[in-house]
Prior knowledge:
By secondary structure, this protein is α+β, with helices and mostly antiparallel strands. The protein folds into 3 domains: about 25-145, Immunoglobulin-like (Sandwich), CATH 2.60.40; about 150-275, no CATH class; about 285-380. It has helices at about 1-15, 125-130, 150-185, 185-210, 220-250, 250-275, 285-300, 310-325, 335-350, 360-380; strands spanning about 25-35, 35-45, 55-65, 70-75, 85-90, 95-100, 110-115, 135-140. The strands form 2 sheets. Strands 3, 4, 5, 7 and 8 form a 5-stranded antiparallel β-sheet that branches. A 3-stranded antiparallel β-sheet has the order 1-2-6, with no helix packed on it.
Amino acid sequence: MLIFSAVLGLLLFQDPPPKPPKHKIEVKLAIEPADKRWQFRISGTTDLPDKTVLRLRVFAIEVVTIMGESREEEEGLCYRGGAWYKDVTLKGGKFSEIVFDTAHKPYSLRYRGRAFYDTESQDEELAKTIGDESFSAKDDVAWGDPKNFDAELREAAKSIADDLDVIQRLFSEVKNMFSSQRARYVAKDWLGWKKEFLARVDKLRAKNDERWELWAAWVERQGRFRVTDFCEMLKYLVEDECAAVLEKGDEEALKSAQQTISRFPERFEEAREVVGLDAPFDIETVTAVTKRYAAAVEAVKKTAGADWDKGAESRGAARDAILRLSDQKLVPRRGYERVVRVAGSLTRLLELGPDAASKPDAWKRAVTVHDEALRDFMNYAQIKP
């Protein structure tokens, strides 16, 4: 009776489930090539009245597995110009808008178009007439082959590497020009070079702005931020610091320019390390650590059962290697998720190892799961067995 009363009490104090909206929105997402660009178009129909404002947005969908549970994560693609949503005012119950436009061929991911009815976006009297709380409708499109995604990230990393090489050359050019002009300043030469140099930096920045900011495409997101940072640094160095020294004779600006120049190598190496130019970032180190790990696990397998006490050293070596691979400066997000799978399957091996002889079926399954996870990571990292 007490249990029944407790359950009844919980039911009475729970919020009632939300009422389904009176109105409906039918949504269709399409990804269309257009003049060397790609356009994400959301269209649809609705019985909402004219002058209702719908907010449209496109999301990339990634399935993330944490502690054995999978869930979908929506990550919005930012509409150009800084707007997060494309707003459309209804007329005739239909809508069709380009919500995201990009020069970048879409990654092989699933995308979701959403149309939001938001009460806060409506005229107050119209919202009262409609009578619905905020709600949304969606449509998903699977684009490309998921097997191609890692190759696409490697291509993005190569593009970023090319831009970082350009930045390094631009920096050397600034240093050389600044040094020569300090030795013998010729205003015409300096001003002409400055104008042309800044135009090249702006062109690089415009190209970089087309890169995506998705966490799912981690290497591109990081590359975009780093290239933006270097473009801003180069412009400031030339326009403000070097120009102040050469054009105005500002000695304080000289100290600032020298500090910026001296910090560049460290910032540049940090960018290469954080962004990574391959998948994984440091192929030689990852290959060496992975092979060390694989050898340690093979030794662990040989001690399973009666000889388990003899394998403490190999177990320690396996743990050390997997911890090294877990460094996200070494392995990017997509690789890190694979490392987590390997680590989880290693934990299962270490749990079952002492009882491998008495639980042969469970041990065999654990070995199979582990080896598949390790194989998947090695294929991703382009490591040959």
